[in-house]
């Protein structure tokens, strides 16, 4: 059986920097609260005249392809993770495909929120292992800013989410690459972190209101405390599952790239695993939580900073809406 190697990483974030101070001028929050509870200093928000999920994905993809020494024409298939596609449907994988001039190749949409990139990576890995494709583009891209509830009611989500895109090029190899991926979900908690509308199982008049009087259903709703408590348990579980499956231990991890949900979550996981700072990569300080884009943006930056080297063991882990959680162990 073939193995899949990550041969190029890229990312793109919008130009507009939103500071904690800016947010505290429009909602009831403070720089101190945000830093203490989340570790976030600033995040990027899109300019709707400039950025789309599809074109940010394309920019990240171009960087990943260039770093891989490939061009668009080498890509055979796209797996695109996003819960904030430019249109309700189709997903933005096809928009990115159009931007890249790749009309004709398949584009699969993955809607698994913060775990989306690892689900997408796992899917691409299966296509490569079976021999169906040789080169697959895996992208995570999100625009969360336009769905945020910018009132005191929504302040626990308004301060954490940001926009951006990250991409990875996966290629067939006869050397070890992705060692294993571990995907989980528990729909019991679907409504603990979700956007309700425009849901299909809503009465006709609510799915297609002539006039929207109450926009609550279109905004991100999160039971932050409950999500946090589940996150720290599932992060540890799914990392240990991956290590056990590969007969490896936490000492073998060269770099852990956790989904950037909250710095306190990453620090909890780091402490439990006993990893030195040099073996964990966080960039939530600069970008907030960019959902499916967070892991590939972080990997792309870690690679550019020289933090990922040949033969390193990379561990990815995520938890989020669904609930879903996932991990991947990768030999670089
Ligand atoms: O990425 C996918 C999954 N998402 C996550 O993993 C996020 C997990 N959850 C979290 O990161 C945290 O729960 C939050 C950062 C969202 C919230 O932090 P917390 O320490 O869990 O705060 P809390 O929700 O328990 O709220 C504590 C207090 C409340 O006030 P009272 O009731 O104690 O008076 C909140 O109303 O903090 C208040 N609060 C805020 N105050 C200032 C909540 N959000 C804010 C805010 N600014 N932005």
Molecular structure report:
The protein contains eleven helices and 13 strands. With 332 residues, it is α/β, with parallel strands linked by helices. It has a five-stranded mixed β-sheet with strand order 1-7-6-4-5, sandwiched between helices. A four-stranded mixed β-sheet has the order 8-13-12-11, sandwiched between helices. 33% of the residues lie in helices and 23% in strands. It binds oxa(dethia)-CoA. The site of oxa(dethia)-CoA has 19 residues, from helix 2, helix 6 and helix 8.
List the helices and strands and how they pair.
Elements: E1 3-12, E2 16-19, H1 20-26, H2 31-38, E3 42-45, H3 53-68, E4 77-81, H4 92-99, E5 106-110, H5 116-129, E6 135-142, H6 155-158, E7 164-173, E8 178-185, E9 193-194, H7 204-207, E10 221-222, H8 224-245, E11 255-258, H9 263-273, H10 284-287, H11 294-304, E12 313-320, E13 324-331
Parallel strand pairs: 4-5, 4-6, 11-12
Antiparallel strand pairs: 1-7, 2-3, 6-7, 8-13, 9-10, 12-13
Oxa(dethia)-CoA is lined by residues 29, 33, 37-38, 114, 155-156, 159-160, 224-225, 227-228, 231, 261-262, 265, 289, 320.
């Amino acid at each position: 059986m073939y193995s899949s190697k990550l041969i190029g990483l890229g990312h793109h974030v919008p130009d507009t920097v939103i500071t904690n101070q800016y947010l505290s001028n429009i909602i009831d929050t403070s720089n101190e609260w945000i830093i203490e509870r989340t570790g976030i200093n600033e995040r990027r928000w899109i300019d709707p005249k400039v950025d789309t999920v599809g074109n940010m994905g394309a920019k990240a993809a171009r960087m990943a392809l260039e770093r891989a020494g490939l061009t668009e024409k080498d890509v055979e298939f796209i797996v695109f993770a996003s819960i904030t596609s430019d249109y309700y449907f189709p997903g933005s994988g096809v928009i990115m495909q159009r931007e890249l001039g790749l009309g004709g190749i398949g584009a699969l949409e993955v809607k698994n929120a913060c775990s989306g990139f690892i689900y997408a990576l796992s899917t691409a890995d299966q296509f490569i292992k079976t021999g169906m494709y040789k080169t697959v583009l895996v992208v995570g891209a999100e625009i969360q800013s336009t769905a945020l509830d910018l009132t005191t009611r929504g302040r626990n989500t308004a301060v954490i989410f940001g926009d951006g895109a990250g991409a990875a090029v996966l290629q067939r190899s006869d050397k070890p690459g992705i060692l294993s991926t571990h995907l989980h979900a528990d729909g019991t908690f679907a409504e603990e972190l979700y956007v309700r509308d425009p849901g299909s199982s809503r009465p006709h008049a609510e799915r297609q209101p002539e006039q929207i009087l109450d926009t609550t259903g279109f905004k991100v709703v999160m039971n932050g405390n409950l999500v946090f408590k589940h996150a720290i348990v599932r992060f540890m579980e799914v990392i240990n599952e991956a290590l056990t499956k590969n007969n490896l231990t936490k000492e073998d991890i060269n770099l852990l790239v956790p989904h950037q949900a909250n710095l306190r979550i990453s620090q909890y996981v780091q402490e439990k695993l006993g990893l030195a700072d040099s073996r964990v990569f966080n960039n939530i300080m600069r970008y907030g939580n960019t959902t499916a884009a967070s892991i590939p943006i972080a990997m792309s930056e870690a690679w550019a900073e020289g933090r990922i080297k040949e033969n390193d063991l990379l561990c990815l882990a995520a938890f989020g809406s669904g609930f879903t959680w996932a991990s991947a162990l990768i030999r670089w």
